[in-house]
Amino acid sequence: MNILHAVILGIVQGFAEFLPISSSGHLVLLQSIFGISQPMMTFDVVLHLGSLVAVFVALWPDIWKILRHPIQKMTGLLIVATIPAVIVGALFQHRLEDLFSSGYLLAVAFIITGIFLIIADRLRRGYKKDKDITWLDAILIGCMQAVGIPPGISRSGSTITGALARKLDRETAARFSFLMSIPAILGAGVLTLKDIWFPKAGAAPEAAVGALPMIFGFVAAALTGYISIKFMLEIIKRCKLRYFSIYVFIVAAFVIITTATGIFSK
Fold first, then answer.
1. Is residue 265 situated within a structural domain?
2. Does some domain include residue 124?
3. Judging by beta carbons within 10 Å of its beta carbon (0-12, 13-18, 19+), is residue 118 exposed, middle or buried?
4. pLDDT value at residue 265
5. What are the tens digits of pLDDT across the range 231-242?
6. Is residue 236 included in any domain, yes or no?
7. What CA–CA distances, in Å, run from 23 to 14, 20, 80, 126, 159?
8. Where are the beta strands (DSSP E) in 115-264?
9. What residues make up the domain containing 196?
10. How many Å apart are CA 101 and CA 18, to the nearest integer?
């Protein structure tokens, strides 16, 4: 992998992690386009760390409140909301990734994301702020986060849709979704590190990625992640998620066409 590839993948990771278009689905596509067949687990961890830095910078006031007083309701809500994804991720993550990384199922996953976004745009404006979020809200939004594990199904799109369905106001829904991404990204990183340190028998060797591509990928993911968080916090207030649905439907069509013609391959 060269630096240009690393920057492109970092940019896509940063934008797509927080825009409702599925970062994992886009990375699968790009790796196929770039001809990268070997796993890049260490590089994936680096890109996720870049996204994590973006969350901390963009939402630092919210995070600082939690760090100053960790024993509070919001901490508990985030823990509860993370449980479904932890269970599904620990039991089925690799199976889901392998299954949905095939062409037609990846397209189906993008279509599911588009449907979620259309639903989210049509939901009536909610009224719940941070203090109004219930434990049931947290667990149901967490279940939507678990739905977003397969490549092509957007984690942020799923959780925002779930939050809006539970009557959170739009800005609170987006912020809660982004705060939920902290344990989700950390958890994905831990699972990836486990695979690096304890590879399965017969697993494909990891692709070699140099230090410079990793640095450039990390910076690209952090910068674009910050931009995408700020952008989403504004765009969600205007009920414009349907435009993202059009985009993911186009991506789904692209995946179907390239799969049918043999251009796309995992």
1. no
2. yes
3. middle
4. 62
5. 999 888 877 788
6. yes
7. 8, 9, 24, 27, 14
8. none
9. 3-260
10. 20
